[in-house]
Amino acid sequence: MPTIGISGASGHLGRLATQELLDRGVAPDDLVLVTRNPDGLTGHPDVRHGDWTKPETLAGAYEGVDRLLLISGDDLGTRLAGHLAAIDAAKAAGVQRIVYTSAPNPVPENPVAVAPSHRGTEEALQASGLGWIALRNALYAEFQVPDFQGAIATGKLVSNQGEGRTTYISRADCAAAAAGALLSDTENVAYEITGTELLSPADKAALAAELGGRPVELVLVDDDAFAAGLVEHGIPAEGAQVIASFGRAVREGYLDQLTDAAEQLAGRPPRSLRDVLASII
Length: 281
Known about the structure:
Helix content: 40-55%
CATH superfamily of the domain at 4-139 and 170-195 and 257-270: NAD(P)-binding Rossmann-like Domain
Strand order of the largest sheet: 3-2-1-4-5-6-10
Largest sheet: 7 strands, parallel
CATH topology of the domain at 4-139 and 170-195 and 257-270: Rossmann fold
Strand content: 15-25%
Radius of gyration: 19 Å
Structural class: alpha/beta
CATH architecture of the domain at 4-139 and 170-195 and 257-270: 3-Layer(aba) Sandwich
Number of helices: 11
Number of strands: 11
CATH class of the domain at 4-139 and 170-195 and 257-270: Alpha Beta
Oligomer: single chain
């Protein structure tokens, strides 16, 4: 059994991936949990400090690891540099394969704000000489909860996605796919990790009405109006623009991938957006 490291182990996805690997029979002694906050993880035999902003901490954190799950950071301003530092440190430490949590269809034309850093990371992986797998995770189903709660409360679903369609997948299903990728014999491949259905804003308005038991009107707006609405609800302007860029990408057809890769890697079908929301709302 290879020694598996999880970089970003104290986050939501890192914790779920750790549990998935344990559930699949990976021994705790074969897992290395790397985090900026080791005190946030207890009860595991090998928890190590590793911080992308302090690259000197990474080589020791990855020492003895054969396969590394590199969970992408959430700071758009610094994460590409952090990812590149992690790849360099992993190579120096003797890591053989990196499984990276990327984003859907990170082509240069994709207007979504996160695409450039994911594309840069994938390019660095391909040039590293290491084995690699890119998991291009679709939009998280859990991130849709505030929109649906607002739609149910107000009777209106506001969207800048136009008539575009996209798919949603839960963190748990992404973690299961990551575990499968870490344990598989395949490498040097990118997978589009998606749910099982493509949904339009009209589909989501109908789902909100079903879940809330009241009519929900779909209100389509442009990107500027959508971002302004987010700011009115307390989202910082820069963050609002990032969120709006996802809607534009959906509207322009950049996030309409639909594959069975999640099921193949996880060994089970992903849950639908409806099932995820019904368990939370």
